[in-house]
């Protein structure tokens, strides 16, 4: 198990603990409990989307490096590999851009205000 998997597992465990605490909090009113749980779950979903986008970006970079290495090692008759690899890399990159844009649009709705603009 590498560090990223361990970090993800620990993050998932703490998220589950916080979610359970939010659901069972006796100090919170019943009518706001469902709304708070929903917002909490949506923030976690947004975090997972961002994390997946980052991991897909790293995978695309590794694939690009592998493709360059293969083309350098076997310099003869690599037009097919170069063509297919380039098109696949462009497709994966575009998919990653769309995922990151989707996560960016959704993050707009879950930004917590830093300070009050006006005080009454």
From TrEMBL:
Gene3D superfamilies: Arfaptin homology (AH) domain/BAR domain. It comes from the Eukaryota. InterPro entries: AH/BAR_dom_sf. This is Uncharacterized protein. It comes from Phascolomyces articulosus.
């Amino acid at each position: 198990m590498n560090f990223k998997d361990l970090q993800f597992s620990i993050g998932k465990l703490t998220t589950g603990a916080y979610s359970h605490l939010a659901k069972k909090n006796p100090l919170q009113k019943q009518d706001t409990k469902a709304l708070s749980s929903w917002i909490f779950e949506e923030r976690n979903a947004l975090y997972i989307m961002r994390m997946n986008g980052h991991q897909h970006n790293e995978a695309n970079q590794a694939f690009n490096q592998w493709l360059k290495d293969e083309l350098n090692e076997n310099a003869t008759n690599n037009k097919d590999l170069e063509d297919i690899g380039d098109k696949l890399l462009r497709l994966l990159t575009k998919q990653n851009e769309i995922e990151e844009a989707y996560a960016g649009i959704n993050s707009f709705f879950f930004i917590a205000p830093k300070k009050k603009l006006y005080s009454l």
